[in-house]
Write a sequence for this structure.
């Protein structure tokens, strides 16, 4: 069940936190993006000139965007939930008559909007360095941005519900998500890897997020883009179901 | 017709081995003020958590305005305004924002007039635009009360709202609760300040170790203890006399027995004595 005022308010609550400190939320990804283009685009780009017929500095844009934006999408709900647990304000969410669907959507939208905001910014920064602003295939481009940032937001919600302290939240990010991102073929193409690593990459969900988005933005791909969109959509739907179930059962949130 | 705002019937709840609630049974009629008295660990907060869906009871029946909170939480949550025991606040928002959001999370349209009235009633108007971390303890407590009332509930539940609160604030809170009651609000207040119960409550429930020991009107409860007449007799000794079976003192007999009595003083019964008697008996 969705009540528009309730969902709107929860989404407002989950977005206003990062909007209130927007210089931090937005500043850090932008600085990191600039660094990447300075180092990779400048220094490395003179050695690796092209991948799949695309200049290297442009080839890395989608992966770079995803790496930063999904981290933000993940951090938004997970930190919001853990702060609520620490400060005892979980009841702000538990006392009102919010349905499981409203809670799922509210936290999802909070993380997703933050991820999209960071995405747009990094695409813009990248455009300044490379001159490449516009995606090749808008529909797949947008679908991939939404599925990947949405999936990470919902992962953040699950981890936030599960976690007992902030270390678990940042631990999951550092030891699972970041390696997954870097190994998701965002700085290289699969054929540069040994065969075993190529096969392993296909089990990394981030690979499909990155490859699909790269197709949407640049028109080049490793696997069929529709397969990437399908995988990303499937992950999105499964996580959505898990989020709904966790809220419906009041898993680890009640007393 | 008097409606039952809250019904507790043989409510049970365990945390592992610990039976936090064993047998809670009492009924709060709509529009009444009930004080829930009990020592620390009696299970008062646990009982409140069973009401609002924070925790699931193991057995027994609970009805909020005729509905079971575990079956129809959306209905019961609208009826309940709960002021939690712990002093909690979200450091990111101002009191005004919090009250607006609280209404929104209950699915209600903005009502600036009401929100400002609440802020005013709870003396928070000056502070309505500062971050909550800049509020004093007493202000945070008042903010929690305002939040609990933001969606205009019919039942207000306050879990030890006056613990560690200064006298002035306590008195103004009592006054405010009195006003709410006059407007028809059902109020349940848990406390271990017994004067509070004596001053405010129509009925008193005494709870200890997860059981309702007694539930009756404050007047009846106070009647269980006799008034005492204290006087000084002609030899300068202090004599105490207990009230008769039917209440009151036989003044003729007293003046015959103690012709030169002076310093007469009636000592009213105290809920505290009754409370101690009951919780000790167990
Ligand atoms: N989440 C919990 N897990 C385990 N024990 C708990 C929990 N909450 C309360 N208790 C125990 O239940 C008993 C009743 O606690 P509580 O309801 O807070 O009492 P009161 O509010 O009357 O002081 C206490 O012994 C307390 O330690
Ligand atoms: Mg308590």
């Amino acid at each position: 069940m969705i009540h528009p005022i309730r969902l709107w308010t929860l989404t407002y609550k989950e977005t206003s936190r990062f909007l209130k400190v927007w210089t931090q939320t937005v500043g850090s990804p932008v600085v990191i993006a600039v660094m990447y283009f300075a180092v990779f685009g400048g220094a490395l780009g003179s050695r690796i000139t092209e991948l799949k017929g695309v200049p290297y500095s442009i080839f890395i844009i989608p992966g770079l965007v995803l790496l930063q934006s999904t981290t933000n999408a993940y951090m938004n709900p997970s930190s919001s939930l853990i702060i609520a647990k620490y400060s005892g304000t979980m009841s702000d969410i538990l006392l009102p008559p919010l349905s499981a669907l409203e809670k799922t959507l509210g936290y999802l939208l909070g993380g997703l909007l933050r991820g999209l905001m960071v995405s747009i910014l990094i695409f813009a920064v990248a455009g300044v360095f490379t001159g490449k602003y516009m995606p090749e295939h808008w529909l797949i481009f947008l679908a991939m941005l939404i599925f990947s940032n949405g999936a990470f937001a919902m992962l953040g919600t699950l981890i936030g519900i599960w976690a007992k302290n902030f270390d678990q939240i940042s631990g999951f990010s550092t030891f699972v998500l970041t390696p997954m991102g870097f190994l998701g073929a965002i700085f290289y193409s699969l054929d540069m890897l040994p065969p075993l690593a190529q096969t392993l990459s296909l089990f990394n969900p981030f690979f499909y997020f990155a490859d699909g988005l790269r197709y949407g933005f640049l028109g080049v791909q490793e696997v069929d883009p529709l397969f990437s969109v399908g995988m990303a959509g499937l992950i999105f739907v499964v996580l959505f179901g898990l989020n709904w179930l966790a809220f419906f059962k009041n898993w680890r949130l009640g007393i | 017709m008097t409606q039952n705002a809250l019904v507790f019937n043989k409510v049970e709840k365990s945390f592992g081995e610990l039976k936090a609630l064993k047998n809670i049974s009492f009924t709060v009629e709509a529009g009444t003020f009930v004080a829930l008295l009990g020592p620390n660990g009696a299970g008062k907060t646990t009982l409140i958590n069973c009401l609002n869906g924070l925790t699931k009871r193991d057995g027994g029946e609970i009805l909020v305005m005729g509905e079971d909170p575990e079956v129809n939480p959306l209905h019961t949550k609208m009826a309940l305004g709960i002021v939690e025991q712990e002093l909690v606040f979200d450091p990111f928002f101002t009191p005004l924002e919090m009250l607006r959001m609280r209404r929104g999370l209950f699915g209600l349209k903005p009502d600036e007039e009401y929100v400002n009235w609440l802020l005013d009633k709870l003396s928070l108007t000056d502070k309505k635009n500062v971050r909550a971390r800049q509020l004093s303890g007493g202000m945070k407590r008042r903010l929690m009360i305002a939040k609990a009332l933001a969606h205009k509930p019919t039942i207000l539940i306050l879990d030890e709202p006056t613990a560690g609160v200064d006298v002035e604030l306590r008195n103004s809170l009592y006054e405010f609760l009195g006003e709410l009651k006059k407007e028809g609000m059902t109020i349940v207040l848990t406390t271990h300040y017994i004067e509070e119960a004596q001053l405010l409550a129509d009925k008193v429930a005494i709870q200890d170790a997860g059981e309702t020991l007694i539930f009756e009107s404050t007047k009846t409860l106070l009647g269980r203890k006799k008034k005492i007449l204290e006087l000084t007799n002609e030899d300068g000794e202090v004599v105490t006399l207990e009230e008769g079976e039917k209440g009151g003192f036989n003044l003729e007999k007293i003046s015959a027995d103690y012709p030169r009595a002076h310093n007469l003083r009636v000592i009213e019964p105290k809920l505290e004595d009754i409370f101690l008697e009951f919780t000790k008996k167990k």
